[in-house]
Specification:
By secondary structure, the protein is α/β, with parallel strands linked by helices. It has a single domain, classed as Collagenase (Catalytic Domain) (3-Layer(aba) Sandwich). Strands 2-1-3-5-4 form a five-stranded mixed β-sheet, with helices on one face. Helix 1 runs parallel beside helix 2. The longest helix is centred in the first third of the chain and has 22 residues. It is globular.
Length: 228
């Protein structure tokens, strides 16, 4: 995807009826968090031991326009970071609100934008942004701007808020993927266009990641953005 072009197809989630396959035990998810993050931290060395981490780092400036609780947002960010670490990419998060009255304590937010910086904006509904978007689309990208709307995520067929936050992290990962790889989709993994009940199951933890070819493309894209 070139700058200024909108990704042509969006990740849709929540198809199918509610049922036992979509209900996740909160306690079980909490126990898995440390395991996921441990996997994320160790994955770079396993994937490409000859590549310096500085070459494979992207900065993400987050505008939490929807007012998501900090704990929930950190949870979603950790899931997106885990998915990228599996591909050998480190995501560095910075809270950078863009509203007129908001100020960030993060000095990075005032620095000029570079190719190694992406912007993530989370809104309740993209309709409020005067941007045409399907009510069933959970996110899309325009150049280096990643926009995620919560309206459809809130309709997920699950009783677990933890799982809803997990899916938010996967949507963020998907849309960042468009910013780095372009507007195309794949038949499997995190870059699938439509997410149904199979993607809502716990086993999707190991399936909703980038393919090997996408990992290589991501690493090349990030290295180019970092001037390598």
């Amino acid at each position: 995807m070139t700058k200024g072009n909108k990704a042509g197809s969006l990740a849709n989630v929540g198809e199918g009826k509610n049922g036992s396959s979509t209900t996740i035990a909160v306690a079980g998810l909490a126990m898995l968090i440390s395991l996921w993050m441990g996997t994320a931290r160790n994955s770079l060395a396993k994937r490409d031991s000859g590549t310096r981490s500085a070459d494979l780092k992207m900065s993400v400036r987050v505008d939490n326009n929807a007012g998501i609780a900090a704990k929930k947002l950190r949870f979603a960010e950790s899931e997106a970071a885990r998915i990228y670490a599996m591909a050998g990419i480190y995501l560095e998060w910075h809270e950078c609100p863009v509203t007129a009255r908001a100020q960030s304590a993060d000095s990075v937010c005032a620095a000029p934008l570079t190719p190694s910086v992406l912007r993530l904006r989370i809104v309740d509904s993209a309709k409020l942004m005067r941007i045409r978007s399907s009510s069933e689309a959970s996110g899309y990208t325009i150049g280096d701007l990643v926009l995620v709307q919560l309206e459809y995520l809130q309709k997920l067929p699950t009783l677990s808020e933890y799982f809803r936050d997990l899916m938010l992290g996967r949507v963020i990962a998907h849309e960042i993927g468009h910013a780095l790889l372009g507007g195309g989709h794949s038949s499997q993994g995190i870059m699938q266009a439509r997410w149904g009940t199979e993607q809502l199951k716990l086993r999707a933890l190991s399936e909703m990641v980038f393919t090997l070819d996408q990992e290589k493309a991501l690493q090349l894209a990030v290295k180019m953005r970092n001037g390598q």
